[in-house]
Amino acid sequence: MERKKVDVAVIGAGPVGLTAAHLLRKLGISSIVFERNPSTSFHPRGHVVNARTMEIFRQIGVEAGIGDVSLPIRQHAGIGFMTSLAGEEIGVIWTRQGGKPTPQELSSSPSLKRSCPQDEVEPVLREALERDSPADTLRFGHEITQISQQDDAVRLRWTATDNREGEVKARFVIAADGARSFVREALGIGMSGGSMGQQIGVYFKADLSHWLRERPYLLWWIYNARTTGVFISLDGRTRWTYNFAYGQEESRSDFTPERCQDIIRAAVGADDVEIDIQSIMPWRMQARVADRFEVGNVFLAGDACHPLPPTGGQGMNTGVADVHNLVWKIAQVLSGSAPRELLSTYEPERRPVGTFNVEQSKRNAEKMARSGLAGMLANDENVSSKIEGPEGGAVRERLALEIPKQREHFDYPGQNLGVAYESAIIVGDGTPPVPLTIETYTPSARPGSRAPHVWLMQGDRTMSSLDLFDYSGFTLLAGQDGRPWTDAFAAVSTRMGLRGAAYQIGAPGHPTPQDVDWLELYGLSASGAVLVRPDGHVAWRSRAAVSDPVAALEEALRVALGFTIQPATAAPGASGGTD
Ligand SMILES: Cc1cc2nc3c(=O)[nH]c(=O)nc-3n(C[C@H](O)[C@H](O)[C@H](O)COP(=O)(O)OP(=O)(O)OC[C@H]3O[C@@H](n4cnc5c(N)ncnc54)[C@H](O)[C@@H]3O)c2cc1C
After folding, report:
1. What is the pLDDT of residue 134?
2. Which of 21, 153, 180, 384 is the most buried (most CB within 10 A)?
3. Which domains does the chain have, with CATH numbers?
4. CA–CA separation, 518 and 197 (whole Å)
């Protein structure tokens, strides 16, 4: 039996596990990833990669690769509602007028929200990892069958598809093993929330260009007497999924390829269109949150701790942000730069975000259903049986009035970029929280917030402020009169043995802001500074100079690294396990 020892083991090579593996590799942490399937996903489930996830992908070097295989921006411009592709159009929500990024998108992030199907996202992540990682880091066809914790470490047993078995001892485990998480079950972690119905997702190829008629829609919601559901445009041409609900009286095996072809033809509105079925995936719409995100040295991430309805496209995105929050903390603890208590802030920071996204996705689904626009959520016969033809005009008019009210379901920069943490490692500065609005992102550098994006010039290079944030350490941004802060940062980080960088934005030899008053955006005077964590969230802010910047920064870093958190009474790693 093979035995191995690593610092971190990741269970699951979905988008969340693969992102965790990238972040671990970036920080040089010895790691291993186990995936029970022989390869990445064949069925394209998730597809919306929001701007925040694209920023994280930018940091790990795969933003361009994801962009290359995404739906072109010009075809990711609206959400259509219709009786069938060939039938009457009921309404549209334009998310990008004229197929161009909105001014809000362009000013708030260096990265654009994209639609990249999961069967493309995962190979991009996998191939980039395989290029740079030791050969046996990624173990496809390896299922974790046992987990136990002892002596501040986790022991995993695996079985490979060729029946080989092995054991890994890891200091920490990231369980990104999906909605039916084996690890969550094995550790006895319960879930709150419930299921919202059962669905079928059909992945198929068909040339539907005749019916697209220059309509650049990402989603096509369909309502007619034979089917209600939603088409997801994967490449804007021939790759599609169609998702629809089915009732308790039916079973997944009722949905044969022939029946699915008929359903899709009804949704297209053409009985002779060629439909080449690739896969049929039954799935369950869930809105649940795990009772705990961590037990001892095991951390749940992604769908394992918050499976949520796809209404809003938040599942993969929320999970990617989970591991972005977690991995730098693990690295600081492993290197001895931070105490174990730093890891106890993962759950307090990520649970509110996971819970909010679960609730908001559920609200989106329920609001659609209440408005008669249930679509893939359920078949509302009151609508679907009366919506077609001249006699359906009144129903279509009523629904048309409801469509604009669904905007926050499809357009939500505030929900993603406005995430702000309140925790024991955020040093409050007495300013009130910025209220979170779904559709509008309000940039803020209040401690806890994602540090805002500003375009900067360094020499002849244009970069985002986000490009200054190095995942391996803290970054200090000071105003042009903030030399005492940058000097203090150098002194304190040397004394504490920390990696990091400090910039006097706008001063000679330092990055210079373009077109924007960055001090106003960051809430600083020219003598102030912010301390940004490796994950790009503000840890601390001083609006102006102080008499002892060394003492102020040292205290801020001690808080941000968890030195001021009281140690828990129970020994870490003492609980949980299947053997
Ligand atoms: C119709 C639909 C549309 C969606 N649209 C979006 C969207 O637009 N945007 C978005 O962000 N999300 C979307 N989602 C949700 C998204 O698909 C999930 O949130 C995402 O896949 C979760 O990623 P994950 O890595 O946490 O889990 P998963 O992708 O489920 O990956 C978990 C992996 O763990 C592996 N595994 C499980 N147990 C073990 C074990 N014991 N040993 C080894 N490996 C194991 C599994 O094989 C799997 O590969 C959508 C979902 C659906 C169904």
Report:
1. 85
2. 21
3. 2-71+115-192+292-352 (3.50.50.60), 426-560 (3.40.30.120)
4. 47
